[in-house]
Amino acid sequence: MEIRLEQVSKDFDSVRVIEDLELLVHDGEMIALLGPSGCGKTTTLFMICGIHTVTAGRVLFGDRDVTHVPPQERNVGVVFQSYALYPHLAVAENIAFPLRIRKEAKEDVEHKVRKIAATLHIDSLLTRRPGQLSGGQQQRVALARALVRDPAVLLLDEPLANLDTGLRLEMRSELRRIQQATGSTAILVTHDQAEAMSMCDRIALMNEGQIEQIATPSEIYVRPRNKFVASFIGSPPIAFCSGAVSENMFKGPGFKFELPERLQAAAIKPDSAVTLGIRPEALQPGLDIPVSGMIAFVEPQGRETLYGLQLPDGNMLRSVQAGGSRFKLGEHVRWGLDRESLLFFDPDGSGI
Question: Which end of the chain is less crowded, N or C, counting CB atoms within 10 A of the terminal residue's CB?
Fold first, then answer.
């Protein structure tokens, strides 16, 4: 089922939280609404499922305008962060609830519950109550309840937020497997970029009620549209340095170099101010653009180490390097930049 939001806006009292939002989700695609708290991603999800009414614009499922259709008639399955299971009902009854509301035949309900429970590997838990389940098991039950009605659209509102780190990693791949197996069109709301990048076909990065960029995980990382996107996507975060471009050369704080070929034909005015974005993997020993500085911090992280390199003018760059700590705090080093991995932004913050 294709989903389209056309010029959608949402007001709460006199405050506009979503402004003329445009979004297209392809049939069978899993897309993430990613962004900081308060950016409007959950509000957008709730307008899609009908919990929030739309102030202006249209919501379409395929060719059907569902803008003013109540939630129960939209054929959507929703999994909330809290799971919202009924504590007094057994797992089987929780899963069957939306089917009983539709007054389906008892035999059909039992068959569908057994089938979806087997798909999610919870068929041995059908007689238990939610209070007797782990967080991961409750998450699967909530997902089974959403999927049992064979929804046209699956909406996931921070579904992994309450799980511990190990289980969250396991459930990322499990959710993706189930979505692909069922062929559902799915929308994931999350503030966790690792979830969005590992689970989804595309990411819609939101900020202050607007979509800053929609792209595949690799594209949004390698070619961010602006500084906000570049700073939000990536962990450890990107570092920025101010400089200027003249005659295809970038001159920054203590270093200068020839622009990558992809930028040499760009319309950059002579001596114009440009911001350089340097991701941690683009700063390594032995690369071709020399950068000298002092190691300001060392953070061992198991299989890799994060370093902070302080430049003579006080700018701080980050470098992620494989293995244990090879350099010491306070040591002066001469490393290098990977020219093709560097990002450039104009004075307005737009990517060049």
Answer: C
